[in-house]
Every structure is written in C-alpha cells, then in structure tokens.
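To whoever is covering the structure queue this week,

Two jobs came back overnight. Logging them here so there's a record in the thread.

Job A:
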Amino acid sequence: MVNMFGLKRMFAKRKFLLFVFIGLLTACAACKGNPPNVEEIIEPSLRVAPLTTPTLEAPTATAVPSAAIVNGEGIPLESFEREVERYLVAQKSLGNETPDLGDARKTVLSDLIDQVLLAQAAREAGTEISDADVQARLDRLAEEVDLEAWMASWGYSHDELTDNLRLQMLVADQRDRIADLVADPVEQIELQQIFAFTEAGAKRALAKLNAGTPFKEVAFEFSPETGGYLGWVPRGYLLIPIVEDVAFDLPTGEHSEIIESDIGFHIVLVIDREVRPLTADARINLTRQAIHAWLDDSRADSTIEILID
C-alpha cells in the first residue's frame, strides 16, 4: 500500500543515476529465478539508458587527463565527457529537453566518484572479478538482449563494455555487502494516522478522539480511501523524523497529540508492536539509506581531487 511517506521517496535527492547499467547486468539473474539485489533499489523512472563508469587508471607521469582522482585512481576526462553526453541523451528521453549542462556534469561526476568508492571497497574486501567472470556475464546478457545492437546504439566497443562491466560487478558486490548489514527482522509498529492540512482540522480531530470517538472512525473522515493506515513500519522508514520519533515512543494502543510537520498535522495511533521481517518496500528503502550513509562516510574518509570546473 502506498502512503504519503512512501510517495515522498520518489523525490529522494540522490538517485544514483549511473547505477542504471546494473539493472541490465542483473536482468539475466532475475530471469533465471535469482532474487534481484541491486536493480530493485534504483529509481524506476531512471531506467532509460545505461550510464556506465569509465575504466579507472592510476595517475602517472604519462597518464591521460583525469576529471577527478579518487584515492589515487583517476576518472579519465575523455570517459567522463562521454558519460555526460549519454546522461544528456537519457534526460531528453525522460522529457527534459533542455537539461542544464553544468548540473549534468556535476551529477555525472558525483555518481562516478560514488561508484569508484564502492569498487575500491569491494577490492579491499578481497573481491576479484576474473576475465572468465566477466565473459560469463556477457554471455548471459547476450542471451537476453541484442548486445551488439545495444553497444552500437550507445557507442561502446567490446573492450570498453568489458572494462565497465568488470567495474559494475565490483560496485554491485559492495552494494550487496552493505545491504547484508541491514537488520532483518527488526522491531516494527503497526501504524495508523489522522492527517490534516490545517491545525484547525487537526484540533477538531483530536477533540473527537478525546470525546470517545474511535480513532478508526475519525481517520476515515480525513482519509476516506485508506483510513490513514500506514501498515507495519521499522525505524528509519518514515521520512518525517518527528512523526517516527513520537510513534515509536507511544505505548501500544495509544494515540499521540497533534504533531506538526512540514507537510501538515498528524495524529498517530500505534495499533501493535512486534519484531517481524521487513516488507520488500521497507527493505529496499532501508538499504538505499544504508548505501547513502556508507557513501557519505566513505567520502569523508577519502582523498578526492576534482580536476574540472
């Protein structure tokens, strides 16, 4: 069931645009019955064109120009420029006919840096991607899509695709390692809310509750379709921290006072509380948050030199 907190996830600030290519790489595994591990946490609206990462080269006296250097590994400037071009094409296919070039370059470089950090961590953890591993994945892809046509359409040589695929496999490995750290099962609360856009409406609802009107009855007055039912939620799932904090502090069976947020006024009821497995949606979103947090920490601990404007 989609609720207002779930809907707001569509507007997450960081979308990992360059991880779209992983969706293509994992498609075969999904078709053969293996559970998806990375593709399902990508924003669906961004799965339009694969935006790959370049082969990384350690800077030397004869190294090609780099767009950035991440912990000693360079992102070649030429590869970066090609990715910007592909990103702009993808944006236009999404209906953004006049994407800002400056914003595009910042977005692409930021996501490339994230992928480099993930790949570096995978290698540090001992992950090795052999030529045979890459070829096996290429063979599986060729069974599912017209790979030659796809490469021609986006201007990839076989060597470039092979190098990018190897890097993406490292990225996927580290993302899976982070996802494995998400606790499951965890404590969750079954939640229902009364939501009002105005303080007057919220006060009217609270007065009815205090007069003995059942919470469910008042909730359906404000949300006729769902009755404000939010289902089972773990900590970190709701995008309005103040609502989540109040909800988890409530005893089972009790409702809150009026909680004001940036979008309106809430009164929440904790229907039940127990340790239970995460729903698919909750796990996807908590995994996304874990990856965001890991990248923030990794950037803070890394040496990143930007060499372009």
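Job B:
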Amino acid sequence: MSPRALIAEDEPLLATQLKALLTEAWPELEVVHVAASGSEALDKLLELKPDVAFLDIRMPGLSGLEVAEELADRLEPGARPPAIVFVTAYDEFALKAFELAAVDYLLKPVSAERLVRSVERLKSALAQPMGLDTLLAQLRAVMATPAGAEPLRHIQAGVGTSVRMIALEEVCYFRAGDKYTAVATRDGGEALIRTPLKELLARLPPARFRQVHRGSIVNLDEVAEALRDDAGRVTLHLKHRKETLPVSRLYAELFRQM
C-alpha cells in the first residue's frame, strides 16, 4: 500500500506549498488530509491513522508538540504512531532540541532540497517503524525544560479583585486554562495567574514540581498515591484535594515503582 500522510498547517499557502513539494519529492505518498488547527490534526490522526505527520509547531488550539503528546496518550497499547516531522519557523533552541532528540524537522519556508532529505529519512523510518516508547522518549527530549530561568519563591495570583501571595509549599497543582493558569492550593481554594504553564515550569523547583500532563503541573509533595489501571494509565490522588489528576503517557514514568 502507498504511504499516507497528514499535514497540519494553519497557513493555507504554506500547506499548499508543502503538499506540492511532497508530490514532487515523494510521488507515491498520498496526503489524506490537511488540518488547519491542532485539534483538527489530532482528530484526523486518530481517525485516519496516517503513516507520516507533518506538524506545524505553532497552530491555533494545540501546538504541534501538544498534538504529538496527546496522540501518544490516546493511542491504544501496541498501536504504531506515525513518523513525525515538525515544521517550524527559525528558533535556535527548538532546532537544537529536535536534533538532540533525533526528531526530524523542516524550517519554514520549506525548501525542496531539505524536503528531499527529510523524505529519505521518512522512508527509512517507515521501513523500521518505531514504537510508542520511542516516540515518548523523543518527545521527552524535545520538551525538556531549559535551565537558567529565575526561580520563583512565591506565586502572585488573582483572587477576585485582590492579589494573593501564595507560598510554593501551599500549591497542590497548576492547571492550564484558555487565558489563565489556575493555582489549586492545599486549603481547597483556587486562584488565577497569567503565566503560561511552560514558562511557569521553567521557574519552579524541579525536585518538587513536575509536569504530569500537557495541561497540569503537580507538587510531588502533595501526591498521596499514583494508581495505574489495566490499560497502564496513571491517575494521581492528592493529600489535600478531593479531585484526581490524570497523568499522560509522556510523564507516567515518573510514577514507576522504585
């Protein structure tokens, strides 16, 4: 069967250009869908199960990295993920991260010469398809938090019309929202901050605060137990909160038995 691909790109001209270049570089490849957002890309990846995915890093809704993470979390055990190529505008850190993680990437605007090299890598990858564990390892390497950010000592969060100063040890977890990040505290309360989750993670003590899902960071001192179901999915129960937190496959190794 001919290999099948999905393109996720929210700029129509760039999507059309990439599709045309792929037709020249890899005539046998069938582009089965072009998605204009991260959410659409995720839905179609799960529905169509293409062999290859070209994911734009910056898209409305979910980013390309978030699509890959969510895809890995939703695949059935033993399912084979697509070979992924990330498409990005120039960003020195991002490119270095991709290279260290052995993940292929294309730089915008995509050149025919660079795409030919990527196609050759993809053909080799499809000859020896990777498993889910390999994809997870690559994503962990790409998404490693850069060091050097100024550490936080407390959180300044909005509660109604006031600003509350919250000590880090009082925080149970952070949860990303559409415009704000929620701060859930030991006393059962919740406050709001504007700092995005990824930026926040870079300023939190890594020995205590760890990302456990694309939308949440947990204080490990507040975890009472981690329960794993028959499908291998992990759920966290907290010491001072009634709600539970799901752990994505990308971060489940944090809670393996010692």
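Note for Job B: The mean pLDDT is 90.

Please reply-all if you pick these up so we don't duplicate work.
Q.
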